[in-house]
Amino acid sequence: FPLRPPKDEL
Amino acid sequence: MNIFRLTGDLSHLAAIIILLLKIWKSRSCAGISGKSQILFAIVFTARYLDLLTSFISVYNTSMKVIYIGCAYATVYLIYAKFRATYDGNHDSFRVEFLVVPVGGLAVLINHTFSPLEILWTFSIYLESVAILPQLFMISKTGEAETITTHYLFCLGMYRTLYLFNWVWRFYFEGFFDMIAIVAGLVQTVLYCDFFYLYVTKVLKGKKLSLPA
């Protein structure tokens, strides 16, 4: 499965 | 990181701590919707699975761990330690009416059709409506303790400050996340009525009680 791009917000 | 995001995060943290302390100090979770707190625990769990897959910063990781830890601690206090004080009769919002449509929406409208991305989207949608059982409970009992209103104010301010953060990031970084922005707007709108009561009543030293 492709990982989602890292999201820097909480 | 900009000032709106930082103050938003701190406001969120303050809300979580206020609620934990309120329950711990009073040894009671009267007036608190356990259902909303379960929804928030689900929100954090679904969103922060990326703790296992990507590292952003020490700040990012520690906040995520604190949010998740506090969310489960709150659920534990309500449903185990102080269960006798839990007002289940007034906490009668049907959460399946939130979780099922939100789950369907996350599968239909997302950035990428992958498990982690769908779970992230689900958490964003669910967070926007997770406070409804709590607001429903207050409308049912017609009142809220002042400390509970401080909790709700901090929690509502957090997403409101994030809206300013997204405007900032759009202008200065070209950053734009439609799903987060629309859900954040919905979330903030749900608090508007409460914000009004908070400013006109609680800040003037009155208890929040609704007309019968």
From TrEMBL, chain B:
InterPro entries: ER_ret_rcpt (IPR000133). GO terms for biological process: protein retention in ER lumen; protein transport; vesicle-mediated transport. Keywords: Cytoplasmic vesicle, Endoplasmic reticulum, ER-Golgi transport, Membrane, Protein transport, Receptor, Transmembrane, Transmembrane helix, Transport. PROSITE patterns: ER_LUMEN_RECEPTOR_1, ER_LUMEN_RECEPTOR_2. The keyword Lyase does not apply. The chain crosses the membrane at residues 65-82, 94-113, 119-138, 150-168, 174-199. Its main location: membrane. It is a multi-pass membrane protein. One of its GO terms (cellular component) is COPI-coated vesicle membrane. Pfam families: ER_lumen_recept. It is found in: Cytoplasmic vesicle, COPI-coated vesicle membrane; Endoplasmic reticulum membrane; Golgi apparatus membrane. Belongs to the ERD2 family. PANTHER family: ER LUMEN PROTEIN RETAINING RECEPTOR (PTHR10585). This is ER lumen protein-retaining receptor. It comes from Dissostichus eleginoides (Patagonian toothfish).
